[in-house]
# Entry
Amino acid sequence: MCLAIPARVTTIEENHMATVDIMGVTRKVSLDLVPEAAVGDFVLVHAGFALQVVDEAFANETLELLKTLPFFEEEVGLGAIAEGA
Amino acid sequence: MQADRILLAHGSGGTMMKALIDEVFVVGFSEEALKRLDDAASLPFPGSRIAMSTDTYVVHPLFFPGGDIGRLAICGTVNDVSTSGATPLYISVGFILEEGFPIEDLRRILISMREAAAEAGVHIVTGDTKVVEKGHGDGCFINTAGVGVLPEGLDLSGSNCKPGDKVLLSGTLGDHGIAIVSTREGLEFSTSIETDAAPLNALIANVLKAAPDARCFRDPTRGGLASTLNELADASGVSITVNETSVPVKDQVRGASEMLGYDVFQVANEGKMVAVVPAEQAEAAVAAMKASPYGEDAVIIGDVNEGPAGKVYVFTSFGATRIMDMLVGEQLPRIC
Amino acid sequence: MDLSAFRDPLIAKGLIEAINATDTRPVKIMEVCGTHTVSIAKNGLRAVMPERVTLLSGPGCPVCVTANEDIDIAIEFAKQPGVVVTTFGDMMKVPGSYSSLAKEKAEGYDVRIVYSPLDALIMAQNEPDKQVVFIGVGFETTAPLIAAAILRAKESGLENFSVFSAHKTVPAALGALVNDPEVEIDAFILPGHVSTIIGTEPYEFLAEEYHVPGVVTGFEPVDVLQGVYMILKQIEEGRADIEIAYHRGVMPEGNTRAREMVEQVFEPEDADWRGIGVIPGTGLKIREEYSHYDAVRRIPVTPPEPKDIKGCQCGEVLRGITLPFECRLFGRGCTPEHPIGPCMVSSEGSCAAYYRFTDYGKA
# Structure
């Protein structure tokens, strides 16, 4: 009950509508729920409406956090990947 | 002829039908064999084994990004005949036209068919038309049958796959299905994706030269790759595993599928070919595909294993295994 | 923004190890969002869980929990002359008491699939001689969209658009589950996008009153694993909190504007959850002020007497009491080709997810 995908706002149009880009596919969506969305923002799109702006900072924060879990250093070591293992 | 729309009279066998055939069909196809207008075409046949296939096309809309029902019809039957390893030669066409169908649209479709046939190197040699009352047809339905000459000793079949074989795919998945759905009312989105409808007889011939022990070819049309692989696994009593990361999918196709909740493995293709070949001939086969028209994105996507028989698995991008299931009924967009 | 990292196998592997390293009693974790059901099945996540962790699917598929009666009413609308029924694709094949929207479309009634309620508004504008009825199904992720559509219709004076509201809300249903003596749940994987709208406050009672932890979780494999990991840490540490794993998609306060629009257009009423029964206050009824856009009031219909399906165990499956492959009809008489209950026909029903992506119980 939650199929929503991140899409980039490319243009803002009248009547609270915007054009968004999902990997090259574009579609008009409504910004009724997120009137503050701006061009360049990523929004979650569900059934033709933007639900929320996706916070890139939070996305990165989460990924950083996950990479600090003990098992990354010990075993799979992303550092090892960087060294070309 | 003066009419700009199909009338019931055009199907009744009288002068109006003759005018339609002479001035629209024969002109549109511009085939020598058709000009004789015999009930049957007498044709030379260079061999003793024949491969034959038939298909009916009811696609809607009739004109879609990159193609139309005419191109689809010719390419579809050329490809089906070619999967047997035969060289396709002759095509028959049967039309069911709805009363009121614009003749201009019919001309466009015929030109598409002529061009596709010329590209594939096949001849449209015989045809038929019927007209049905308004409301009893979707504008235009087309049936095509194709015959080709089968070389001696060749016995390709979906039941030939063996554990250890490699599964090849000639290019990107999902283009046709997404091109079609992008035109559907109520779902509109803008995309530059076009249908991939194309004749693949040249590609198949090249692969057979490079990999003479190829087991089978099959085109992943309705139901997509999932239907094709499930059918092959079932027919051969083997299991097939696909590496998700190796399957080529255009970004826009991925984006549209995510938006609509579609499984790309189940989306239709009209210009792609799956080939199963023995492992030692796989590299040569892929190279042959890549060097062929419409095969530039060819890749090995998986392998055939012992069993359980009839199962198809996906080794996912993040390292787990799940089943690649077949489409049940229509693929519908979802919000859940 | 490149979000493919949330499918990164290395990060996923690290989380799986972390999950296995936790030390807890056997636990049953329920997800209540159909999209989680599909994500877990499609990514093969059950297979990587330690034995002591059971992932249950709950009633998180709003399509699955739509009452027979509501589908029967939707069908009745389709049968009215001059009416076009518009619906999300998810609803088409769901069986009502006697038929489905897909079957009625095959009979010739005007039933059309739309991706968005906005598309239904456009249809109404383009076809002024038709009455366009939109079948509103979904949880809090979708209700604001329908509220917005109704507000747009009112603002533009659109006279031929109305909504049949079969929406439901989630938090009280979670309460009903923890109160159900037959149901054993140790923690919830809380829905992602429902929470984008409602935030975390509506779930607090689970932790405070029932000591049941919940983690708001996203849908990529890494998201789901992170949610499970955070739940197990809570249980290991004896905590019961409502936490957010899906930071990039959910703010603790949710989407205030969206909630206001729902408040404006809808009011709570009791709702019948298929297989579970009536859960008070979990339905959304169109308010008097917008009754002009309520299909039920604009186009009175008389649906046939509702009828339940014999032998169907969807109710138990939806509450996590019975696993899909434990249902006596699973794969034997109830398959995606011939579904008997909504759990099998819905694209994100538990039974469909199990049948499609795993090997369980297939004859």
In short: Chain B has a mean pLDDT of 93. The radius of gyration of chain B is 21 Å. The domain at 166-323 of chain B is CATH 3.90.650.10 (Phosphoribosyl-aminoimidazole Synthetase; Chain A, domain 2). The longest helix of chain B spans residues 103-120.
